[in-house]
Design a protein that fits this description.
alpha+beta
Length: 173
């Protein structure tokens, strides 16, 4: 995965990555929404305890006199166990509950790479389908999901925190 000539290596996350992932999530949501909303981190935090696939893309190591190593997390994806989503979600489907890239790393294919690897791993674990929820006004995310074979399922509903139209998307693995 390239970003400005550097390569992102995807790896399985560890518990020590929670705070960095939450920081990326909050920053990405604020960039998407034009401002930060209270409760975003608190709403996301419990999902890390239900992870089936959790991947992190560390910022690439950049050679230079002022750089000692990785600069932190550039993005992550977290898929939670079947039954961890909303009442209308397929009971047998894990849920891609969190997918985010740091604002400075967006629009470079990192989110797509994370999503592809997560769905690949979910299929390898024996899951046959997966679900996610997307804000319908997040045109870039909806376009990504549709281009990767995700299909709108069910009726749109109001996001519990942001009060904006949200849609479930499903993908067969």
């Amino acid at each position: 995965m390239s970003s400005r000539g550097a390569v992102h290596e995807l790896r399985c996350a560890v518990p020590a990555d929670v705070e960095a992932c939450l920081a990326v999530w909050v920053a990405a949501c604020a960039a998407r929404d034009g401002r930060a909303f209270d409760g975003v981190a608190e709403r996301a935090r419990p999902k890390f305890g239900a992870g089936v696939v959790w991947l992190v893309a560390d910022a690439p190591v950049v050679d230079g006199p002022d750089v000692d190593g990785p600069r932190g997390v550039d993005g992550f994806v977290l898929a939670t166990r079947p039954g961890s989503g909303l009442p209308g979600d397929p009971e047998d489907a894990p849920v891609v509950g969190l997918l985010a890239t740091r604002p400075g790393a967006q629009a470079r294919g990192l989110g797509r790479a994370l999503l592809r690897e997560a769905t690949r791993q979910l299929g390898a674990l024996g899951h046959h389908r997966v679900a996610l929820h997307a804000l319908l006004d997040n045109v870039a995310a909806v376009g990504l999901y549709e281009s990767e074979g995700w299909v709108a399922a069910g009726d749109p509903f109001e996001h519990s925190l942001l009060k904006r139209p949200t849609q479930r998307f499903d993908r067969l693995l």
